[in-house]
Specification:
The chain is mostly helical. It folds into 2 domains: 56 residues, no CATH class; 98 residues, no CATH class. Helices cover 62% and strands 0% of the residues.
């Protein structure tokens, strides 16, 4: 089975999301754990870079008046109509804010998968919300959407 960056990210997310420990695992320990779990080194490196960029501070200022998001050609190639509709739906129902939506789009563009599957987009939204402070309610609502529609197997 060919593992990809999303497999690594989902494995990490599920492994460390429910961790009772307040301490962050050392990146070398995480890398070793992933390699021992059988993930390819190149995919591990890409996933860790993706996570590092997610944790960087992002200063996205919301518009002072309602705004309409226009997707560029590259974004439309990565996010099909259904995926863009999901992002709009999540924003309209209050799960995503304009700032978190932009962070999701940034992380979508950083991953090498074209087009992005709907399930992977849902996971990506969940990971972004998990990484953001004060997004517990939005995370819980998105978690219900993700886990409520997943197949019976996970890595």
């Amino acid at each position: 089975m060919k593992e990809n960056v999303f497999d690594v990210l989902i494995y990490l997310f599920e492994r460390f999301m429910d961790s009772d420990e307040d301490m962050k695992p050392d990146s070398d320990e995480v890398r070793i754990d992933l390699l021992e779990a059988g993930f390819p080194q190149a995919e591990v490196a890409k996933a860790l870079e993706w996570l590092d960029a997610l944790t960087e501070h992002h200063d996205i200022q919301p518009a002072s008046t309602p705004a309409f998001r226009v997707f560029c050609t590259a974004e439309m190639a990565r996010l099909d109509t259904e995926s863009r509709g999901l992002l709009m739906f999540l924003e309209q129902c209050g799960i995503l804010t304009p700032a978190s939506r932009e962070l999701v789009i940034d992380r979508v563009m950083a991953i090498d998968e074209e087009p992005l599957s709907m399930e992977n987009l849902k996971w990506m939204v969940l990971m972004v919300l998990f990484s953001q402070p004060d997004e517990e309610l939005a995370f819980a609502r998105m978690e219900h959407l993700v886990y409520g529609s997943l197949p019976a197997y996970l890595h």
